[in-house]
Specification:
Helix content: 40-55%
CATH architecture: 3-Layer(aba) Sandwich
Number of helices: 5
Distance between the termini: 35 Å
Shape: globular
Radius of gyration: 14 Å
Number of strands: 5
Strand order of the largest sheet: 3-2-1-4-5
CATH superfamily: HUPs
Order of helices and strands: EHEHEHEHHE
Structural class: alpha/beta
CATH class: Alpha Beta
Strand content: 15-25%
């Protein structure tokens, strides 16, 4: 049995992650799904709905394969803070995140949750490349 913590930032990311997860999870695995939103004035109703849809895409696609638990955090934290907090609670064996190609300037100006996860966690991270359009 493997416990996976999967972070998603939207429906498109979830669709790509789902494609990967369907090929690797087994019925004895446990999958914890997380969507993190900043909250307050920085989070719109559309953001919340996109987060819920992102979780539903994964939950619906994995429900017949394995145990799934979803959580949407809207607590005023950066995504990495929520990711690390739930990791401490759920004690996953591995993490699964999507990664995008970004320029060095884009990373510096906008930050990178994926980069933060890779630098902060103490367990394996499965990085699923996002297909650019």
């Amino acid at each position: 049995m493997t416990r996976l913590l999967v972070g998603t930032d939207g429906p498109r990311t979830s669709e790509r992650l789902l494609s990967y997860l369907q090929s690797v999870v087994g019925e004895d695995d446990e999958v914890y799904l997380l969507n993190s939103l900043v909250g307050g004035d920085d989070t719109t109703t559309d953001d919340v709905e996109d987060g819920e849809e992102a979780l539903e895409v994964l939950e619906d696609g994995l429900a017949d394969l394995t145990s799934v638990e979803t959580h949407q955090m809207v607590r005023g934290n950066e995504p990495i803070e929520d990711f690390l907090a739930v990791a401490a609670d759920w004690d996953p064996d591995e993490f699964v995140i999507g990664i995008r190609k970004r320029s060095p300037v884009g990373k510096m100006v906008f930050g990178s949750t994926a980069q933060n996860v890779l630098m902060e966690v103490d367990r394996p991270v499965r990085c699923v490349p996002m297909v650019s359009d």
